[in-house]
Protein 1
Amino acid sequence: MSDPREGSAVKLPNHTWVVILAGGVGRRFWPRSTPSRPKQCLSFDGEKSLLQHTVARLDGLLPHDRILIVTGQAMEAEVRRQLPQLSQDQFIVEASPKNTAPAIALAAQGVEHRGGRRMVVLPADHRISRVRVFRETLCRATTLAHSRTALVLLGETATRPESGFGYIVPGAACGDAHAVARFIEKPPKQVAEALLSEGALWNSGIFVFTLAAIREAYRAHLPDVWADVETRWDRVAPVSFDHGILEKWPEVAVMPCALGWDDLGTWRAATHTSRVDRLASIDATDIVIDAPGRTVALLGVSDLVIVDTGDVLLITSKDHAHRVDEVRALLDTKREA
């Protein structure tokens, strides 16, 4: 996990705010992830949660009072509990889940009301191991966004053909950044292998823009969302930021980087997780275990995910780990029958 002590003396410009999206439920990390304690509130290193690491990476980059957290009602109490250093008015609580485009619009208007001019958007549940590079890259991206009307996103150098990630194919270069030739969302493995060979980047979900640029983009492509998020949330249609804004706005730039970034999208991606009291393993390979307090014995098995929460035991192959929400839904159906 990242170590904020890697940080340098770089700072984000004045009037720049950071918004952390912490409203996802993390259904693909069931049964450990629940609505009241979702994935971003879990620790995968025995120390800080993913959310706490995300905030810690910002230490020294900007004052803590220029951070906003967007979260949902179900997990509000836990998110607030984990970030006692932030004041009560730094949390924006969605009345109901609406996906990322409404969440970012709501946060952008909150930043605008607070006098902000630039905004960085970070997911709360990603790993970044090269913290110094992350900070320096974020500062360069903020400078680029300020000098143009572009929405700037960070594209991580792809290191494997990961079919669970979004990809960005970079186009013509312009200084530190590139135009975006096209976006590809979660391609099958063969397509991911081809994208890797042609230099496609992973979509990190990290965005930087000025308030003027994002206001213009929403008014052009999601005007109802921009108009309604603060006063008529129930009327807002769910839509992702990628589909609603990024894939339509002509002024989008991608900045290639190597942050040591990883999206813990499913248990399959949690390759560094091995929480168990005692482990006996013979001829067992590629096993993800999350069973704190348990003794686990493995013999002649491979490519498994084993999660024990005390009331639920999940055992799945890594190839099917992305489908755990189907099992949760089946259990809910049986419980209601």
Note: DSSP finds nine helices and 15 strands in the chain.
Protein 2
Amino acid sequence: MPRCIVYDTDTDPATVLIVDDSEENIDILLNLLPTARALVSLDGPTALEILDRTLPDIILLDVIMPGMDGFELCRIIREDNRFDDIPILFITARNDEESIVRGFEIGGNDYVTRPFRPAELLARVRSQVRYKRALERLESIAVTDELTGIPNRRAFFTRGQILFDSTRRRGGGLSALMLDIDHFKQINDTYGHAVGDQTLRCLARQLGSRLDDGDLFGRLGGEEFAIIPSGRTGEQAVELAEAIRRDIEAAEVNVDAYRPRLTVSIGVAHTDEQTDSFDNLLCEADMNLYIAKQRGRNCVHHDGIPSDFKGTEFRPRIRRRG
């Protein structure tokens, strides 16, 4: 029996998980879905193992199976929030009203009875997959900064709070970097906002190339970015900030015919016994960024307010974001 085929819903093939104890039923579905990625399982436990490794675009699920039937498998899937967005389409010989209602009540998205009409089944599968992908696009837009393509303020704060809570439960520490482009207004005033926008994109790409996969990185607005390094001590976070500062100072930004020179100021903070919230961690990093600006820019500050600091009164800019 083929283990992987492809079912083409749009230009991007969908991944389909077929769960049925009948190889004959599976072969019918495989022949019906001619050009897409598909995974097959003859029982519920194997389907759950597949889901731990791969998130399909849709699950085609039989009801009548030995051991764990389709209703029980659907219930287990719906209890795991990793699979919330995966549509489940029941395909079964059970056509009584009670079974159909139960299928929807436990989390099924659609219910098709055998014998089914092939064209109708294909239409239902396509409809569910396209709806899922439309939701995914909307969700991506909601958490992505339109200009730079990196996580936006909302996504950064949501994911940052999760990291902060997880780190506290483990008893570990967490660092935060707040980064601001020095004299960015002069770039906009001298070269125009289009060049300023391209400069922000270039900076985002350069920052991303320096970071590890587990690091959280986002644009908070304007020319201000924030980074939550993963698995680094406070000293390592400061080293990362210095490396970023040196990289940007040395880089030649090529935007059309313009060569704006960039420097950045960075504030670094690390959790301690007084850090009781993610907002407080970012406020400390933001305070240190403010001090770096007052010290002349193009530097990293992480030691708190020095005793001889003569800047104006600091007013934290970080607030709880919705």
Note: Residues 153-301 form a domain with the Alpha-Beta Plaits fold (CATH 3.30.70.270).
